[in-house]
Amino acid sequence: MGRLAWPLRPLPDGRGEVWRWDLSNLAELPAARAALRSRLGAVGFPVQDQDTAGERLVLAFDELASNALRHGASPVVATVIAGSGGWLLNVSDRAPEMMPAPAVDRDPAKGGLGLHLVARLSVAHGWYVDDGWKHVWACLPSSIENRQPALT
């Protein structure tokens, strides 16, 4: 797999309903994913078998949050802003010195390709540091028809 940079970019201006999870360890991720699916259902998104856009958001949420919990520093805060045109996912942790580093030339069987996956699922992505927090973000469309290739 070729080199894919995770760009240093500020967070886009996101307006919409804010959903937030404070995470301290990987064991909390299944409950956070379930809560995200529940929120998607509450705002009218079909169940996971019928809606790939919602499942793509859940997958990106899981990848960025698990990366922060594995490679960052607690606390980890995962936020989804549900806007009219899509979702803004922002995951922050207290390890601003550890920039997101997509795996390069790794055997996919060994894992570690989450940043590549999120980049492909999103229409835009990036990261920045603010006041001692590293923020890794991605914008995802709320319908598969609205998806345009991510800018890298």
From TrEMBL:
Entry-linked CDD domains: HATPase_RsbW-like
Keywords: Kinase, Serine/threonine-protein kinase, Transferase
Single GO molecular function: protein serine/threonine kinase activity
Pfam families named in the record: HATPase_c_2 (PF13581)
Claim: Kinase is one of the keywords in the record: yes
Histidine kinase/HSP90-like ATPase domain: residues covered: 25-124
UniProt cross-references to SUPFAM superfamilies, sorted A to Z: ATPase domain of HSP90 chaperone/DNA topoisomerase II/histidine kinase
InterPro entries: Anti-sigma-factor_SerPK, HATPase_C_sf, HATPase_dom
Matching PANTHER family: ANTI-SIGMA-F FACTOR RSBW (PTHR35526:SF3), ANTI-SIGMA-F FACTOR RSBW-RELATED (PTHR35526)
Stated name of the protein: Anti-sigma regulatory factor (Ser/Thr protein kinase)
Record organism: Blastococcus mobilis
